[in-house]
Design goal:
This protein has 339 residues and is an all-alpha fold. The chain contains 13 helices and no strands. The protein has one domain.
């Protein structure tokens, strides 16, 4: 119930912010920004979005392969899409999509819970690593090029992102040295004997097995993550050109970086937050807030199409898992009665 209330609240905040931005920019100017955009251009943006999902799904498959689980790519893609749909529509459920993906693997392929949840955490760490690196460079380029730069505000964002990068660096250092972080945290919070302690330690062991500098699979995962970011950069660059604007290649990194930051806010489909962030960024770069609105509308539109496909798989898998759980409970009940 609390999560549903949080969903409604975040949706209300996002909707209010969305309409405020639209009212500020004006529908007339936003329509004007679409004058150069075509259906063919929209299809190219959609194809690039699909390509980015395929790359991310393949990255997850390589992680599963490293755990000796050869799951068909189409199945991996279906599970990935179902997880993306949760993240897209319910971002306030932290790691909800990742947990669902891990549970799918556990139920369908009898993968032990530490391994299944570790696979999605590894996937997430690889993605956050490349996003953080892109964000540091993107914000730096933006500070240097923006026509209006409140230094303290941008410095705070830059340092915050850089701090995340440092934390990621510490994680990689600890992983390479095989120094447990979980064990230390369990001791600090006195959770060593808790129910989930063994699972958490098992997950960490799987992370240590993957994040080793002498393992090709780790570097393959990092390479695929950067390829995913390059796909997003190409999509952003082409979309801005399709909207009739020209931009420095380096500044596209800024736009993608701020898009990633906007997605961090727990608002369904980043409604309002994405518009607010990009209208400020585009305006500061001299591209116009109306172009930002068109940019965000198109990006959200193609990602909505992907998310809706994910919803179909989510409900299908959800029903199958529910049936499986109910069947197991009935079987246990029958066995118990026979005894």
């Amino acid at each position: 119930m609390r999560k549903f209330i949080l969903f409604l609240f975040s949706l209300a905040v996002g909707t209010a912010l969305f309409w405020w931005i639209i009212d500020t920019v004006g529908w007339g100017k936003i329509k004007l920004a679409f004058q150069h955009f075509s259906i063919q251009a929209g299809l190219i943006i959609l194809l690039l979005t699909i390509l980015s999902v395929l790359i991310r799904s393949f990255r997850w498959k390589t992680i599963l392969n490293s755990q000796q689980y050869n799951i068909p790519f189409l199945k991996v893609l279906e599970y990935y899409l179902s997880g993306l749909s949760i993240t897209f529509f319910f971002p306030m459920v932290i790691f909800g999509g990742e947990v669902f993906r891990g549970y799918d693997l556990k139920e369908k392929y009898s993968i032990p819970w530490p391994k299944s949840i570790a696979s999605v955490i590894i996937d997430r760490i690889l993605e956050i690593t490349t996003y953080a690196i892109a964000a540091v460079f993107g914000i730096a380029f933006f500070i240097l090029k923006a026509t209006f730069t409140p230094a303290k505000f941008y410095l705070t964002i830059f340092l915050g992102t850089f701090f995340i990068l440092i934390l990621i660096g510490i994680f990689y250092f600890k992983s390479f040295k095989k120094k447990s972080i979980i064990s230390s945290l369990l001791k600090i919070f006195r959770l060593k004997n808790s129910n989930g302690a063994e699972t958490m330690i098992g997950v960490e062991k799987e992370l240590f097995r993957y994040f080793r500098p002498n393992k090709k699979v780790m570097w393959k995962g990092i390479a695929l993550s950067f390829l995913h970011v390059l796909t997003l950069l190409a999509r952003a660059m082409l979309l801005i050109l399709f909207l009739g604007k020209e931009i420095d290649v380096l500044l596209v990194v800024s736009i993608v970086a701020f898009s990633s930051l906007a997605m961090l806010l727990p608002i369904p489909a980043a409604l309002g937050s994405h518009e607010a962030v990009q209208s400020f960024v585009f305006d500061s770069l001299g591209l116009g807030a109306n172009t930002a609105m068109a940019f965000v509308f198109i990006i959200r539109g193609v990602e909505l199409i992907i998310a809706l496909f994910g919803v179909v798989f989510f409900f299908r898998f959800g029903i199958q898992i529910l049936d499986s759980v109910i069947l197991r409970k009935i079987t246990k009940l029958i066995i118990h009665k026979k005894k």
